[in-house]
């Protein structure tokens, strides 16, 4: 399975260690837990990052990763979630699901719907899971097209 990760260039060496989770919570994981957020496409990975950054001056890299064949994947479908799961107020519920997955060690990968594009999926990787095996292509410099930064008149 092919996955994509977009990260700040300064975090390239630790991109698949999940260290960010030790310092900040994510939609699916509470603070204090290592977890690596990836996406099924570079387009989705770029949207997931774009909604969180405020400047085109941040150097980014795109990394394509490949999971070993047969890697176990636990799946959460939108139908399994509360109606308001995309809202910030649903974070505690989603973080509880992520924490349970991380602690259970049932699968090294958790497939979750994207809050930005709910018919597409992000893949959370548990770097502490003994069965997580992946290899990566060399990182590629990534820049958003300048048009995405232009002001909108609505």
UniProtKB/TrEMBL annotation:
Q: Which domain of life is it from?
A: Bacteria
SMART domains linked to this entry: RES
What InterPro entries is this protein classified in? RES_dom (IPR014914)
Q: Which residues form the RES domain?
A: 15-139
Protein name per the record: Gll1212 protein
Task: State the organism named in the record.
Answer: Gloeobacter violaceus (strain ATCC 29082 / PCC 7421)
């Amino acid at each position: 399975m092919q996955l994509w990760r977009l990260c700040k260039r300064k975090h390239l060496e630790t991109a698949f260690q999940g260290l960010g989770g030790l310092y900040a919570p994510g939609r699916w994981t509470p603070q204090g837990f290592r977890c690596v957020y990836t996406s099924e496409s570079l387009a989705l990975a770029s949207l997931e990052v774009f909604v969180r950054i405020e400047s085109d001056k941040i150097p980014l890299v795109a990394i394509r990763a490949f999971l070993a064949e047969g890697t176990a994947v636990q799946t959460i479908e939108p139908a399994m979630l509360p109606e308001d799961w995309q809202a910030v107020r649903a974070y505690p519920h989603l973080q509880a699901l992520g924490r349970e997955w991380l602690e259970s060690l049932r699968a090294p990968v958790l497939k979750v719907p994207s809050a930005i594009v709910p018919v597409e999926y992000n893949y959370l990787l548990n770097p502490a899971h003994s069965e997580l095996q992946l290899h990566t292509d060399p990182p590629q410099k990534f820049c958003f097209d300048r048009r995405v930064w232009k002001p909108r008149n609505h």
